[in-house]
Design a protein that fits this description.
single chain, alpha+beta, five-stranded antiparallel sheet, three-stranded antiparallel sheet, 21% strand, rod-shaped
């Protein structure tokens, strides 16, 4: 059964609590209104403060960006990297940065990049220096023959294209080992291509026959000697003429004779090759007288007989005789035969008779001499020159 009294009691209690709930609601409402009022008064200030903070932070960030871009640009400029496209990449990154930490990180990246580029440049510069040094060393091994060597040019090309110091050094070592034989081949080729059988050689300061100098070069392993060796075919030398007396040369020289020119003190001025020799003669006069007498006695009678003969020979204007032969006034062949090898025959006769006509005879000698020695010869008084014949043709 339902307890009616109990239900009534509950209802009465509920009626008593209702005024209490209303008070709570009112209090809550007052509190909420108070809070809202307080917020209404403080929020604008808070928002304003936050906005100001954001503005300050934005300004500070922009200021930091400008400073960072200036720092990065000067860093690139310091090492002449302003043309590097990565500079604009770093500047764009700074413009897009959202924080100071991000900006600092970008600056550090830029520093690392610049350091890497500087190091690359140093390594590249060092590589170029090593390459140039190796090329110069190779050039020094060749002396002036580097200008004539295709092997040298090949080595220079390969060294120049090397990507590392080790590669360049390896190429240098490979070609340096071939220099000696290459120089020999160049020199021998020059000698063999010469039409002359006589070669003037420096620094030996003497003439060699082809086969002798080729053999000498082939057997030599002295690279310092070979790289300084200069060979000059006889026909490439300078020509000079000297008028000397027979007392200045031991015998009349022949075409192709190798001679040495000395000063009066015995110092060698230059070696030379005889191109030709001429005899310069004055008018020649020869006279001879002969007297013969005889007597015959028959008893007291004496018969005497005498005779006298005079021979006089004049050879005037010998060069004129030659000119006359040329124009046909006298027999060309007869004159040619008459004066053929006049110098040699006169020198041979002087040797046989030991009679030397030094006053009436001069020699005009045409010589081939090295260009470098020409000034030494012309600056020496010709009367103080002595010529020795080293090798006869």
């Amino acid at each position: 059964m339902v307890d009616i009294d109990k239900i009534k009691r509950i209802k009465e209690k509920s009626k008593k609590k209702k005024p209490r709930s209303n008070i709570t609601i009112i209090l809550l409402a007052i509190i909420v209104i108070g809070i809202v009022g307080i917020l209404a008064m403080t929020v604008p200030d808070i928002v304003k403060t936050l906005q100001q903070k954001e503005i300050l932070e934005f300004q500070e960030l922009n200021k930091a960006k400008e400073s960072a871009k200036k720092t990065v640009f000067n860093l690139f400029k310091q090492y002449n990297l302003t043309d590097d496209p990565e500079l604009n990449v770093f500047l764009a990154k700074i413009d897009s940065a959202k924080s100071l930490d991000e900006i600092n990180k970008i600056i550090n990246e830029a520093k690392n990049y610049v350091n890497m580029k500087v190091e690359e440049r140093k390594n590249k510069l060092l590589l170029e220096q090593v390459k140039n040094s190796l090329i110069n060393q190779l050039k020094n091994l060749y002396g002036d023959y580097y200008l004539k060597s295709t092997l040298y040019q090949e080595a220079v090309t390969k060294i120049s294209m090397a990507n590392s110091i080790e590669e360049a050094q390896k190429i240098y070592s490979e070609y340096a080992s071939k220099v000696l034989d290459d120089i020999k081949n160049i020199i021998i080729s020059e000698i063999q291509s010469s039409p002359s059988n006589l070669i003037y050689v420096e620094p030996d300061n003497k003439f060699y026959y082809k086969d002798i100098i080729i053999k000498k070069v082939s057997l030599s392993n002295d690279i310092n000697y070979l790289k300084n060796l200069k060979v000059y075919p006889a026909e490439d030398l300078s020509m000079i003429g000297l008028v000397i007396s027979p007392t200045q040369i031991p015998k009349f020289p022949k075409n192709g004779d190798i001679v040495s020119i000395y000063n009066k003190n015995g110092k060698l001025i230059s070696p030379a090759i005889v191109v030709n020799g001429y005899v310069i003669v004055k008018d020649i006069t020869y006279s001879e007288s002969k007297s013969v007498s005889s007597s015959i006695s028959i008893g007291d009678n004496a018969i005497s007989k005498s005779s006298e003969s005079n021979i006089k020979y004049n050879l005037d204007n010998i060069p004129g005789i030659l000119h006359a032969a040329v124009i046909g006034r006298v027999d060309y062949n007869k004159i040619s035969q008459m004066f053929k090898d006049y110098g040699y025959r006169l020198e041979k006769l002087s040797e046989n008779t030991q009679i030397l006509d030094d006053e009436n005879i001069k020699y005009y000698i045409i010589l081939r001499v090295p260009q470098a020695k020409l000034a030494n010869i012309t600056s020496t008084n010709v009367g103080n020159i002595i010529i020795s014949i080293d090798s006869e043709q």
